[in-house]
Fold these 4 entries.
Entry 1:
Amino acid sequence: MGFSYRKTFKAGPIRITASKSGVSYSAGVKGARVTRRADGKVQTTLSVPGTGLRYTETAGRSRAKPTANTAPPAKLPVQSGPTATELRAAYQKTYTLAVQQLRDGVSGAEVRGHLHNQGLAHPQVLKAVTDAEKYIAGEVKRQARQQAKQQAKAAKEKGLEAENARLDGLAAEAAEQLRTGVAWHLVDKWLKNERGVGFIDRSNVRGRAKKIVKGKA
């Protein structure tokens, strides 16, 4: 049984491991880590916690070591990442949840932070948060436009009510003069000079005043 040695140190976000074969360096967050191994190769590992999904990629060349056996090392199988179906399901689930959280006042940055903490910071999953933000922004604009339309409609109705009340008052005054025998052309002149009523509104007042005189108003 041969001699072995292994010791791990941490320097901030970087983890240093010293062993009999050499020194390796590792850095990353939960679900994503990059390691420079003692043999000189760089290994990238992505995983989705709780799902068993893991993707590992190794790049670079190993440092040459003297050996009597010159046969090439056996190739290790490369593990594949999440399938397109799994990514679509994760996107849809994240999108629905993000829309609900954004409506509740949670910021997009907070939603992304939760995904990073859970090791789910896959680009396709993060895109779901961006799409949810765009949907909520559009929803806010639609609500603002609808509210503006309702306010404009209410203001118009209020203005029409005020205008009708003004014309009804003028018609009542005109009808009173007509009952006393004042000719309409004199009443019309009075409306124009004394009340400042325009031609179209004077015609409107005349029709209302006649209805009042006839008892139809």
Note: The helical segments are 84-103, 108-117, 123-179, 184-193, 199-213.
Entry 2:
Amino acid sequence: MKLEHLLLGLIGEKPSTGYEIKRYLDTHGRFLRSNTTMSQVYRSLAGMVERGWVLFTVDDRPGAQDAKIYRVTPEGMTVLLDWLTGPYSPPSRFQDPEFGARLSFAGFMAREQLIDLIETELTAREDQVARFRLRDRTLQVDPDVDFDYEFAAAFNERMHVYGMAAIDNYMDMLRELRRDLLDGVIGSAPAISKRPIRAEASESGATR
């Protein structure tokens, strides 16, 4: 996932200034991407203008610096949709943000596309649990300094228990999302012509 993908999604939802985008990434969007600088935002926006993905109009503001308001072009929307609905390869860590970032722009996707994305993620996590949950977790250590092996082993086992609970809850959430999408519980099929209202991000990054 590139910064440009997030910017296209955000501007696609609501034409924005660079400052507004940065403010969003510093607050709600911090769960989708961390530590984004203002220079990165403006550099990416400039490159997207050159590629024809976005355009801007200048908003005259008497007594203050004029602001550029960026909007997505049809070519930029194609790039965004190609990313949202294109191939998705789940990373090794379920906490990585790309899956949540894709879900956060669900308003641009059809119900079937969302279900396929969720099933891809869920299948990968189920396979991951099946392969690694019962792995040999014996510590392979041979330190040259004092080392409390029993304490380290007990602590690592506690962290393993926490990790199991976290990924189990995550998979339950994916199953619930899939079920509710299949049953039509979550809204109606999106209309691409309608601009969705930007909502706040959750800490999981799965919704905003």
Note: The two ends are 18 Å apart (CA to CA).
Entry 3:
Amino acid sequence: MRYLKVAWHHTSPDDPVIIWSEIGEDGYEVRKVEQFADGRLGYADASTSVGGSELGEFPVPEVATIAQQKEFSPETISAKAFARKWIAARSPKMKSAKSSNRAKVRLRTSKGASKRNLTVLKTRRGWSVMAAGSRRVIVTLKTRDAALEWAREALRTTKSSSTRIAVTGEKVSNVARERKK
């Protein structure tokens, strides 16, 4: 395996600005992570495609060949560097520790602090975590998995006697939209 990081210099918001690739012995991408100008990450492997990312259809050229094109700045990276980016793309966290800490304080000060149940709800902004029975949003994350992970960790670190997390998914949101029509 070889690992590559390529900066792509352009102004299109639809294309990634940095591409991390894990490349097999045959020259084809095995896994890929793409970062867009707005900071979002997409990723792909043989069975998954998230955020518009897809594995390349052709073998990846050598670094020297890529470097000949002015819009690309390639560099070889380690397997460990690729693994860190792959994990970050697959399990996005909150952007800052301060935001996470503020959200945990909101959770501690909400009603029923000793017996807490949380609801994870699909919203227009992402996946929101709320105290059950309340419409107060504690935190909003990009993905369902990130919201569930945050809720589990928050219940554990705030020493809640309950670990119940209810998930309200996209189907409920779609039903609500259909009623409005």
Note: Residues 18 and 134 are 41 Å apart (CA to CA).
Entry 4:
Amino acid sequence: MVSDEQLARQLDPTTTALLTVECQRGVVGTESALPELAAEARSSGALHQIARLVEGARDAGVQVLHAVAERRPDGRGANRNARLFRAAARLPVPQHIGTPAVRIAPPITVADEDIVVRRLHGLSPVAGTDVDPLLRNLGCRTVLVTGVSANVAVPNAVFDLVNLGYTAVVARDAVAGVPADYTAAMIRHTLALVATITTGDEVLACWQRLRADGGRPLTPPGTP
């Protein structure tokens, strides 16, 4: 368990970003290509908690990034070297560029100051995308990871962030995967070894305390 003081140091709004992973309509929305995962994200409360964290991050001056996975209609540049990619190409709701499927799913909102990072290939929301240089330009050293799925993309993001030298924080109630008990096991036995594990409520309370203390600047990272 991390102390309130340690969490406050890690989640300093001036050096922290919140990353939502594949929280797009075609994945966690009501017309998802992956209905079991979408149902779990909603029934577990993870999607609602992510929406709360996104709003809380903006209030605290924390930069929000949304990582979206998409494909060209012709499939150019997409991976074909794993069973997962071949299955994704056959899904009934294709994650094509510019379609509703790749828009962020309600109740999560996207504000003008948010950054949406899109990728056409691979498993990771971080490696091979613009996330790392954007974080560095913004002066961020900690990344709060939320989203789906605990099976692949979320752990991939956490490992890549740690390998790049960032501190990873995971809100365990803002992450979903299938089956539900796998998510808990993944967090406890794997992610807890490399990331700080907390809850959405603890994160929001931390940011509220920092605002009340007035001890840290709350301007968004990268603001002149």
Note: The first strand starts at residue 16 and ends at 21.
